[in-house]
Amino acid sequence: MSSSTHATLGVRQAQKLKTRQALLDAALRLLEEQSLSSLGLREVTRVVGVAPAAFYRHFRDMAELGVALVEESLGSLHVMIRAVLAEQQEAEEVIDRSVEAVAGHVRRHPAHVRFIARERHGGVRAVREAIAAELERFGDEVAAALAAQEVSQGWSAEDVRMLAGLYVDHLVMTASAFLEASPEEERAIADTAGRQLRLISLGRRHWHAA
């Protein structure tokens, strides 16, 4: 294959990826005002400026596009929280950094957070299942980080995973609370979230004595 053919294929692949991302971005904007189950692919392709038939070069249907949005929406949050948990800090500092990370994520990606909050219990089964699977994987990652901490010595894998589930559920709930908050309300939400996580942390230290 000639270098010019390689270059042509490279340009085509780049254009394909660009169009795919444009479809995702357009859908996300439209989903600010409606649920995925009510969104039609013609609405999405109209915004992007491509023919409806072009949609199928990238996604089988709107459900598959929704699953891709789930991966995009939760992926960066995974990375941030995993990085925070990996830091060798006191529990109080980890809690504060986790809440800060969630607040920052919501400020940068409000549409992604709103999409997850709405579709977690929405009408598209494939998307509900994708969100549940991503949060399950998120919980497994958090559990692995918690298990490595000294305070978890002697804990069963089941108890560590239960604790991780509490943290993940709380962080998702906190992200949803940040969505429509003013700066003053955001500070109050962060303070409450931090105190609640500290309560969970305190219970963690005394769990085996119960």
UniProtKB/TrEMBL annotation:
Alphabetic keyword roster: DNA-binding
Domain HTH tetR-type: 17-77
Database matches in SUPFAM superfamilies: Homeodomain-like, Tetracyclin repressor-like, C-terminal domain
Annotated DNA-binding residue span(s): 40-59
InterPro entries xrefs: Homeodomain-like_sf, HTH_TetR, HTH_transcr_repressor_FabR, Tet_transcr_reg_TetR-rel_C_sf
Protein's UniProt name: TetR family transcriptional regulator
Organism: Streptomyces aureoversilis
Phylogenetic placement of the source organism: Bacteria, Bacillati, Actinomycetota, Actinomycetes, Kitasatosporales
